Each structure stands twice: as structure tokens, then as C-alpha cells.
Amino acid sequence: IHARQGEMTAAEPVFYEALREADRTGDSGLYVRILERYGSAQLANNRVGKADAALCEAFRLRRTFGMDLPDRTYRDLALLSLRQGDLEAAQIAWEEAYRLAPQDGNVQYEGARLALALNDLENAEVRAWDMIRALPKDGRTWALLGLILARREQSKAAAQALSVAQSLSPDLTTSIFVEHWRAARQAGDISTMASLAQTYSGAFPDDPLVFYYRTAPLLSVGDAASALPQLISALKDNPDAPAVLWYTLGEAYLAHHAFTETITVLEVAGSRMAAGDITLNLASDNPPIDLSLKLARAYLGSGRCAEAAVSYTHLTLPTKRIV
Fold first, then answer.
1. CA pair distance 178, 79, nearest whole angstrom
2. Which residue from 61, 25, 89 is spatially nearest to 69, judged by alpha carbons?
3. What are the two backbone dihedrals, phi and then psi, of residue 137, each rounded to the nearest 5 degrees?
4. How many CB atoms are located within 10 Å of the residue 63 CB?
5. What is the widest separation between alpha-carbon atoms in the chain?
6. Segment 107-140, tens digit of pLDDT
7. Which of 80, 139, 227, 314 could tie 215 with a disulfide, CB 3.0–4.6 Å?
8. What is the C-alpha separation between 227 and 239, in angstroms, rounded?
9. What gap in Å lies between CA 295 and CA 313, rounded to an integer?
10. How many degrees, rounded to 5, is the angle at CA 118 between CA 113 and CA 124?
11. How many C-beta atoms lie closer than 10 Å to residue 45's C-beta?
12. Residue 277 gets which letter from DSSP?
């Protein structure tokens, strides 16, 4: 009970006492099962080091005593390896868990996560639908499906899956928010974007990103006139705001053909992105390309043709998305 409530400081002495009692009575099977429960509890509470020690010891003892490993232990070992970045070990453990319990939705969940980590998007989606069929009321499964569909560039379906996840598990809203936003933006789902902006404003009213989320739907429907004063006011009050606000202000200025102002604010956004600010990923699937394209248009509009040519050359350079 303590472990499920995240109270591992209170849970650990109880586990230790249970292990001592099982050891005193010589019940090896009970000892191993308690050790596995202890390792699972540590893993669920993100204590990877202690989970690793407990689960590996349980694995060793089961092998020593000739005891079969339950699918839950294999699943936990797969999750542990995945969190430690050992994808090969995770694959081996997951395959054994799947062999023992192919219909278990939790096994399919970890399998979908593993396939996603391996960038095997086809298998990730197959496993994701299997886990949905097994656990249709679990918000985590729909959130993972939404993430996989977004990576497969099925933006509309991804947004729908993430909406289901949010309705089933409101506590997941914050953790899946960015993926939900990206999927809605990519699908051009203005109503969902507006709803998400309202959610974010309520949860984080003092966060400068609130102004990005509020104005992005306006720009998407061509209402730059309403977006512009909000962005100007936000940046006047907080000139150190994230790069995406400067980029979005640039979009609003560009829509008004205010080319000089567009250049000024987009150059700020570019310098902040170069310094490591990754917030432009909220507004673009390829920030370097989109930023260069908008700068080129602004340079041309202001008659700065040489600088426009330099910006256009950036469009042919290889780029990578920073996640």
C-alpha cells in the first residue's frame, strides 16, 4: 500500500521485515516473490538502482532454485533495461514475457514502448492496438498509441487517441500535453488547439508559453491582428521569453507584411535556438528550415536580396529535429 502511494521510505522497512521472515522460515519461493514485489515497487517509483539489484537477485535465485520466472518479472526486467538504455536486454526480456503472456495488455504496453525506442514504428503500432484491446480503459495505453501515431505522421488519429487518453486519465494531461499539441497542430485541429491552450493557461497561468498557446490557433485561422498585440505585450513584459514567442511574433508580423519587424524578432528567435532553446519544436516540425524560409521572405520583402539568398541556401542543407 505504501509503495502504491509512492511512499517508499515507509514501504522499505515493511519489505525488509517480510524478507527477513521469509528467510527465517526457509521459504525460498516466498522470499523470491517478496523480492520481486520489492523490485517492482522500486521500479514503479523510478528507483532504478534498487530495482536493478532486487530484480536481478530474484532472477538469479529463481535460476538457482530451478523456479520458473513469471511473466511480470520478465516484463519488469524489460522495462528496467529500457530505462537503462539497454535495448538488447530489453528485447530479450520482453520476448520471454510475451511468450508467457501474449494476451497481457501490460506486456503489450512495454512491447510497444520498446518498439518505439527501437524506431520500429510498424511493430509499435501493432502492439499498441493489441494493448488497447486488452486495456481499453487505461489512459496510458491511449497516450502511447497517440505518441506512436504522431511519429507515424498520422496526426489526426494521434490527436484523437490523445484526447481519449486525457478523458480517461486527467492526471496524464500534463505528461502528454506536448505530444497532444503537436498532433493537433499538424492535423490543423483548431478547436483542439484552442482547448489545449485553455488547459495550459489554467494550469500554468504565469508561464510565458501561455501566450504562444493562445495565439497559435489565431494565426492558424489567419487572425494575426488579434495575435499581434498579445505577443507584443508578452515580450515587452518578458524579453527573456522562450524562442517560440519571438518566432510566433515573427509569423504575426510577416502576415502583416511588417518585414523589418519580422526580421528583427526572427533573428532573436534564431539566436536563441542556436544557443540551445528547443521551444520552436512546439511550432514547427523542422525549425531551422521554417525559420530560414520566413527570414528569406522577410528579407525579400524589405529588399535585402543578398541576405534572402543566404537564407534560401539554408533550405538545401541537411537538418535534424531536436526532440
1. 23
2. 61
3. -105, 10
4. 10
5. 87
6. 888 888 888 878 889 999 999 999 999 999 988 8
7. 227
8. 17
9. 12
10. 45
11. 17
12. -
The owner of cell 520471454 is: 96
Helices H, strands E: what count in the chain? 17, 0
- Give the residue ranges of the chain where pLDDT is below 50: 316-323
Rounded to a whole number of angstroms, the distance between the first and last alpha carbons of the chain is 36
| In contact, 159 and 176? CB cutoff 8 Å | no
Give the residue among 85, 84, 109 at the shortest CA–CA distance from 94: 109
Contacts of 294 (CB under 8 A, 6+ apart): 250, 251, 254, 262, 266
Report the candidate in 188, 183, 215 with the shortest Cα–Cα distance to residue 201. Answer: 215
Quick one: how far is CA 262 from the chain centroid?
A: 31
Q: Where are the alpha helices (DSSP H) in the chain?
A: 8-25, 28-44, 48-64, 71-83, 87-100, 105-117, 121-134, 139-151, 155-168, 173-187, 190-203, 209-220, 224-237, 243-255, 259-274, 287-301, 305-314
Distance CA 207, CA 205 (A): 6
Task: Specify whether the CB–CB gap between 172 and 148 falls below 8 A.
Answer: no
CB of 317 within 8 A of CB of 293? Answer: no
Neighbour tally for 132: CB within 10 Å? 21
Q: What is the pTM of this model?
A: 0.57
| Interacting residues of 152 by C-beta distance below 8 A, sequence separation 6+ | 121, 125
